[in-house]
Amino acid sequence: MLLIGEKIHIIAPKVKEALAARDGAFFVDLARKQREAGADALDLNIGPQKKAGPEIMDWLVDVVLEAVPGMTLSFDTTNLAAIEAGLRKLPQGYGAIINSTSAEEERLAAVPPLAAKYGAKLIALTMAKEGIPVSADARVSIALEKLIPRAQEVGLAMHDLIVDPLVLTVSGCQEYVPQCIEAVRMLKMVTDPPPMVNVGLSNVSNAVPAAMRPLLNRVYMVMLMAVGVDAAIIDPLDEDLMTAIRIVQQRDASTPLGALYLKLHDAVAAGAELEPSDVDLRDPVQVDVWKTVQVLLNKVIYTDSYLRL
Hints:
Layout: E1 2-5, H1 13-21, H2 24-37, E2 41-45, H3 53-67, E3 72-76, H4 80-89, E4 96-101, H5 105-118, E5 121-125, H6 136-153, E6 161-164, H7 170-173, H8 177-187, E7 196-200, H9 213-226, E8 231-234, H10 239-250, H11 256-269, H12 284-296
Parallel strand pairs: 1-2, 1-8, 2-3, 3-4, 4-5, 5-6, 6-7, 7-8
């Protein structure tokens, strides 16, 4: 599984300040911490940067590669000139990801050829001009009718196309959160070979109190792993999240929480649901996981106090 570190993101005030000040030491430290925590790649989100994008990306790639030589980099900006500036900086043999194209005509015309030109993987969002479709079927249809054909047209190998069915937040979009799980499941079955599938995990907990976000993220991650997700943009510095991923990958049932994660994983993989009998209701940690599953499946309405109900 490809774990893409999300911490270099301009939405974070400290990142924005460090980028403006060209504080290389800040990014060296952040890049090294993410790799040491288990990230396989680093997402470099510099925002639109309409004017200074190429110069910023050029500088940032130099800094990050000095910190973590050999690291796969994901170029996350709508500025194509900045993406190409980053791609040109990578030495031969380095992995690269373009994050991202949508199914909008303008993006499909310009972004996939860039990925093919540089041999980069391409994250392709199941989002058209009208916005993000709510149903799993509609998201998969965009992949089948627009994203995959365009990738094939420009000569991009299927293993270099990473379809992203777009995680939505439980805060305001709760009824659509299970649809992303089903979209991943369907995407892994609709073509042979299937495309890789990516999720931006932290989106599920956007606009949620900070203390509650990690629990939602890691439980959702276990559920997404059950349906075959290949890549995820995550916070690798969240030790509990990385533990949950390891538990699923290693089938480690040596702790009560690990055993519960595996029961959840196997139930979702089978198209079923976790049962109350699977949970030790005397264990508050397991109870919190159980309540979180119900929220993520839209069985219980999300509120900021759902863990206390």
